[in-house]
Amino acid sequence: MYISLCVIAYNEEDYINSILEDIKHQDYNHQDMELVLVDSASTDKTRELMQDFLNKNDTEFRKISLLDNPKRTLPCGWNVALKAYEGEAILKVDAHATIPKDFVSKNVALLKSGEDVCGGRRPTIIKDGTNWQDTLLLAENSMFGSSIASFRNNPGKTYVKSIFHGAYKRKVFDKIGGFNENLTRTEDNEIHYRIRKAGFKIAFDPEIVSYQYIRSSLPKMLKQKHANGYWIGKTLRVCPGCLSLYHFVPFAFVMAILVSSLLCIFTKLSIIYMLTGLMWGAYIALALLMAVMAVVGADKKSRHLSAILLPVLFFLLHVSYGLGTLKSIFK
What we know:
Structural class: alpha/beta
Largest sheet: 8 strands, mixed
CATH superfamily of the largest domain: Spore Coat Polysaccharide Biosynthesis Protein SpsA, Chain A
Number of strands: 11
Number of domains: 2
CATH class of the largest domain: Alpha Beta
Strand order of the largest sheet: 3-2-1-4-9-6-10-8
Strand content: 15-25%
CATH topology of the largest domain: Spore Coat Polysaccharide Biosynthesis Protein SpsA, Chain A
Order of helices and strands: EHEHEHEEHEEHEEHHEEHHHH
Helix content: 40-55%
CATH architecture of the largest domain: Alpha-Beta Complex
Distance between the termini: 47 Å
Radius of gyration: 21 Å
């Protein structure tokens, strides 16, 4: 199968060489691989590094293209790639990721077995590995700190609603069209919703694994969560069917904090104080339980004293995400 592997990048000079080297070392026949690189008007050396890779490896693959995405956003970048790729299927890979050498071959094998769309697990990893970043990773990898999405966890070989690094046969996008360019961060939710509506199934195979680098600091992570929450609110107005209930849990939590706080200030009803106390008690107990589970489930080298801050990290991540949704809904 002639497969087109696509990477969209914006200001990824610290990561782009790594993912390109991963692609170069894939065990799939390189003459059956097209590499589509899309630079989203980067202001650093990302495009220069992509061009350098193309110059040095032009004959290594069946074809390498370097394209420009002047609109910058990710869905616009994917549409640039969809208009240009030549393969029988397209495989999406994030620039902020790393893939094992059998990543392409395992995706192709699943497509050849009869699936139209497929993908696998996407655990998160850290780039530098400081003690504090290990703790951030524990928070991100916890179901309580991120989500219950299939690509974050492992439901076994099954069909799912969405995937992260996905492979798609050409007929899929021929039928449903491209990405919604109005959705900057939830484009995958919307495109997978349309894919399912069009009658295609999304196959999940836990044997297919890729890895995503988390944000390197707490401020960057909180900014990302806030933006994710913000786009959930915007997507609610565009395509409510592509969202799940868990997307709104942080929003519900933030609303519970605001409403209960206001009621406690302006009323003197004992039941309000009791319900508020029960809410906070339940949340704190759950946060402590999930923190213990995260530490126990981690390898020994990832366990540091800073892990005692996991309940606080969970709270900050939930509030940041929830405030983003709140801002978007009422904006």
